[in-house]
Design a protein that fits this description.
Layout lengths: L13 H12 L2 H17 L10 H21 L8 H4 L11 H12 L2 H12 L4 H8 L3 H18 L13 H7 L3 H4 L1
Length: 185
Amino acid sequence: MSNFDPRDQLVEHLPAMRAFAISLTRNGAVADDMVQDTLVKAWTNIEKFEVGTNMRAWLFTILRNTYYSSRRKANREVADVDGVFTESLAEKPAHDGHMQMTDFRKALGLLKDEQREALLLVGASGFSYEEAAEMCGVAVGTIKSRTNRARARLAELMGLRDDESLEMTDDATMSVISASKVSSF
């Protein structure tokens, strides 16, 4: 009898989960809450995890569902009309001061949720099109289409021509925007 407990794997996926949550929410505190909620859900439903399958994909699916559930809930809540809450929020400056990273984040935030999600799953998180499609509950072709449209829209928003490259220090960011001829279709 094996002493393997899938709960032992949860911690190793925390950095990737947090990065995905931040890219969905664009807010570190909200992302941390989402990751915590995801971990609680995973822990209490660990019997639903199929040992031998992709733990990260399972966790990202829970995280994604948590995000969309919170968005639906937020749509039913009262808005901050006077801006009192909004004015109390602070944003950290870019860690390295590169304007391109700031521009990239703004452009990424302007993408449709589905396109941003597909791009982040396939590009930044390294999931295959098949894994991303399963997590999102859509066809593989839909994920490929969303990813390609997102890449094209990012390049458009950032004013990049086909012959230009974006200089960044972050490999994950570069993988998000680079349309690899091998993996596109």
